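Example record

One chain of 331 residues, shown exactly as stored in the release files.
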Amino acid sequence: MDTATHFAMGFGLAGLAYVDPVVASDPRLAIAVMVATIVGSQAPDFDTVLRFKDNATYIRNHRGMSHSLPFMALWILLIGVGTSLLIHPAGIGHILLWTAIAVMVHVFTDLFNTYGTQAVRPFSDKWISWNIINIFDPFIFSTHILALLLWITGLVAPAPLFITLYVVIALYYVWRTATHFILTKKVEELDIENGRSPEPDGHYILIPTISLRRWHVVHAKKDGSYRMGWYSPDRLIWADYIESMDHPAIEASRKHRDIKALLYFSSYTVSEVEETATGYIVRWADVRYRHRRQYPFVGVVVMDHHYNAIDSYVGWLSPDKMNDRLGLHIS
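Predicted structure tokens for this chain:
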């Protein structure tokens, strides 16, 4: 989820903690639990500081080790014990419990979007992304804001209010998960019915959008090429087809740390090469993030004719801004 939603969830879990009669009866403990759930809801994303080093390090590691099983335990201990010592030593058990819930909810909800996490490290460094909930979900965020307003104004007691909120959100996750499963099968059937192929060629990925009724679709074909489009009720529209080029410059670019970072993070990339007067420009793009006919999550390496890197970039940029950043003004 996005930072704002995780922040709202931190407050929401503090409200849910009032189901614990000890927390509800002790204002000081309730404050300590709120501090712990807010910080715990943000802690796995503290690796954002890696941006200050460079984009390659950030992309390779964001939502990686910081969301892993060992780090989840570390966050719980650091935040729970620290908050307890600073605010309410006698309530350490309750504080640790709600810190654990906040940290685990953060990591669990991140599994549902396209970016995903490496939540099962150290057992596997596989990126887990279920593509079910958009990274910013208006329903989840707005229901939290509404519940917090009802709590702040005193119109509804926190325990029943936040029990209701999280039951509704749990049902929402179940509904979205079932919908994603059903529509993935339906997209495959629609594609076959439209005569594209007599049987499935590769697999289909449905990616959530802000709209509950519209999904981006990526068809990862067996030959390594991709079709991109969108699905809305009973309509499957293909908007683009893209495949990687074959060139020595592309193979050479795989050794560059920026490209290694992109390929470590994503298994859905395509590459292209452009020859210039001074060498080559190799562009890699993650096809899952198509936006306005462009692929803004990219890795680019500018090379000379001997495939030596001159400049590079990895991260989020439109093609026009990319050219400006690297000083590329090629017709």
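Notes: The two ends are 39 Å apart (CA to CA).
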